[in-house]
Amino acid sequence: DGGITQSPKYLFRKEGQNVTLSCEQNLNHDAMYWYRQDPGQGLRLIYYSQIVNDFQKGDIAEGYSVSREKKESFPLTVTSAQKNPTAFYLCASSIGSSPPFSTDTQYFGPGTRLTVL
Amino acid sequence: QKEVEQNSGPLSVPEGAIASLNCTYSDRGSQSFFWYRQYSGKSPELIMSIYSNGDKEDGRFTAQLNKASQYVSLLIRDSQPSDSATYLCAVNNAGGTSYGKLTFGQGTILTVHP
User: Fold this and answer.
1) Of A11, B18, B89, B104, which is most buried by a Cβ count within 10 Å?
2) What is the dihedral of CA A10, A62, A90, A77, to 10 degrees?
């Protein structure tokens, strides 16, 4: 089955710890994204990658880091510099890299719920 | 002014009624518009996309776009209790060969009661 997987489903972090959230897709999509969702709010873009070995900061990149070494994988690290990391983290992918980008549609993984203890 | 704003909820409609969800956006260069449905505790799933002015119908769902008024809406006909969810409006300002960003509204909670 084609799709986007995220792991773990739930993650608990102690103060001062770095944690890494996994995102894998087998849709052969070029573009991948990380969003954060807080209760009662929409999604905010953390980082995105249009192609392997390249990524750009989104609106709220501070305290987060990513890598894109493989087309299928786009892991997100929540560092200790992120002061309020408790949130629902969503990974998405889209066909991406070729125009017309205006019709590029993003599809979401099941999400990881991160809680700081 | 928020970039993408949705009508404040929650919205409650009786089963069988039409639910109307509205969204306005500030960037006149926006090219594509999406409606996602998100059940509690789950990730968003795509319902509709619309790129041109006018109406687009898919089953019980109709998306309406008016670029001059910077307004996009989603109508759900014959609403069912299973339609109860948060509906997210998303707007992409990509154009032609330039890569754009998808900006989300804050969501509208819809409850369909029997």
Assistant:
1) B89
2) -50
C-beta neighbour count of A6 within 10 angstroms: 20
In terms of C-beta density within 10 A (0-12 exposed, 13-18 middle, 19 or more buried), how is residue B16 classed? exposed
Per-residue HEC secondary structure of A40-60 comes to CCCEEEEEEEEECCEEEECCC
Predicted confidence at residue B96, as pLDDT, reads: 58
Strand partners, A19: A78
Low pLDDT (below 50) residues in chain B: none
Q: In chain B, which among 2-31 make CB contacts under 8 A with chain A?
A: 4, 31
Nearest to B98 among A90, A101, A103 (CB): A101
- Torsion sign (Cα): A62, A67, A71, A73: negative
| Burial of B10 (C-beta count, 10 Å sphere; 0-12/13-18/19+) | exposed
Nearest to B67 by CA among B22, B97, B101, B25: B25
B43 and A101 within 8 Å at the Cβ level: the answer is: no
The tens digit of pLDDT for each residue in A62-78 reads: 999 999 999 999 999 99
As a whole number of angstroms, the distance between CA B67 and CA B24 comes to 10
Kindly give, in sequence order, each residue whose CB lies less than 8 Å from that of residue A104, ignoring residues fewer than 6 positions away: A31, A94, A95, A96, B32, B92, B94
| Contact indicator for A94, A29 with CB cutoff of 8 Å | yes
CA distance A107 to A23: 13
Q: Among all residues of chain B, which has the CA nearest to that of A91?
A: B43
